[in-house]
Amino acid sequence: MSLCGSVSALYLNLQSSKISMGSVLAFRSGESMGNTLRIPFKKRSSKGAACPLQVVCIDYPRPELENTVNFLEAASLSASFRSASRPAKPLKVIIAGAGLAGLSTAKYLADAGHKPILLEARDVLGGKVAAWKDDDGDWYETGLHIFFGAYPNVQNLFGELGINDRLQWKEHSMIFAMPNKPGEFSRFDFPEVLPAPLNGIWAILKNNEMLTWPEKVKFAIGLLPAMLGGQPYVEAQDGLSVKDWMRKQGVPDRVTEEVFIAMSKALNFINPDELSMQCILIALNRFLQEKHGSKMAFLDGNPPERLCMPIVNHIDSLGGEVRLNSRIKKIELNEDGTVKSFLLNNGNTIEGDAYVVATPVDIFKLLLPEDWREISYFKKLEKLVGVPVINVHIWFDRKLKNTYDHLLFSRSPLLSVYADMSVTCKEYYNPNQSMLELVFAPAEEWIACSDSEIIDATMKELAKLFPDEISADQSKAKVVKYHIVKTPRSVYKTVPNCEPCRPLQRSPIQGFYLAGDYTKQKYLASMEGAVLSGKLCAQSIVQDYELLRTLGQRKLTGASIH
């Protein structure tokens, strides 16, 4: 049953006064991982005075997630920080990177009574969920972000911050475009009355447009070892690509082409001939084991304000700090190889009792001290490389009709998933114009192309998805403006045999830790993985409290002797 009603247009102001600001050191063009590119566009008329917008919300009630094993496990880990013994002397923990991993690390350290100081290189929060506002007041984002029911640590985080109402839950369906039938879609609808895995099985069996019955049977038989073998079997498939695993299990290639090209691109922005099958099996296990695991929600506005700022406010309220425009230039070492300080680009140094790097793996590898490079723990990181992705936003001069209030799998060779954000997101709601946000992937061959080339290619694909409304030459719907955000190195590329290279959050260097979705945790490259990595990093630091206090005392003693 849907929740219907009306809301007003949201005008949200970033509470920048809550953040300690460093000197402005913005990324230069082409330097940033997740750089924003502002695109010249045709001017449109002013929106005029703010007035209430009557929005018919087709959002669904928040699903019952609290009784699932994974949610309870995540809740228990969260509670362990709040119930931990208050430290006699809180640790000062320096954290580089205010993406979800860094924010999560700082939040849970603050919950445990410590003092995190979170340093963000750019002037915007969020890392891979960063977003920017243009001169018209419209937002454009680093990526199209979906919050699944199978994200227990993320769902706990929303609850702990008191912002569950900021997730707009959609109907429990997966909707795929039909390339052979332009303008048509095929649905997998998960019935509410059935428990998992029956609801997922029913959704697959009821869809006869994408897979034939013989293909469904062969696919089901192929999946049996994963269903019976559990997590050990799933982890053992890391050495095989999706395409190779399907063939090994006797699953027809058409199953891969019809379903798993789209799924691979949605999960890791690459095709199934590159993606590790472990990634697919982890997702399928979560979706099949939990009734609401595959149910999706959109954030009700831009991520920096609607998700990141509540975390910052929480950290601030407990005595921690978040500083923007504070880029790390160098990790400075003591004679024994431990961290002495972080040197910032402005020449300042900052010291603490413990240090965390919560940046993407590619950025950390640039900061990696020469003395650490031959240590096995760090040397293995060479295999972990971020995958390029492009996020495209297009504002049209009219409301497109052939779309849904949901995430859509394009099944296009150039596009992954997309959504009409003027419908799916309250803050972006517009009754007169559509704004499509699209993930352009795989993007490796396109990342160096001009914005106009990317838009031209995108419009050709959209003409197939909206044959009655969009044409490549804009003789139908006109493009009012667009924004493109290129991320040359996004989440780590989950190719076969990556799993042994993923590091634990506690490094072999005493007092130094890592956080990020590439570090060892069971949700791979995702927002859930980033949040969980931060919790595990914070847990390691809390467990190491006595050791870190001892190290700090030794440093003080050494300083006084010299």
TrEMBL record:
A GO cellular component annotation in the UniProt record: chromoplast
Major place of residence: plastid
Catalytic activity as recorded in UniProt: 2 a plastoquinone + 15-cis-phytoene = 9,9',15-tri-cis-zeta-carotene + 2 a plastoquinol
Pathway: Carotenoid biosynthesis; lycopene biosynthesis
Key words of the record: Carotenoid biosynthesis, Chloroplast, Chromoplast, Membrane, Oxidoreductase, Plastid
Keyword Plastid: yes
Oxidoreductase among keywords: yes
Cofactor(s) the protein needs: FAD
EC code(s) of this entry: 1.3.5.5
Family listed: Belongs to the carotenoid/retinoid oxidoreductase family.
Name this protein carries in UniProt: Phytoene dehydrogenase
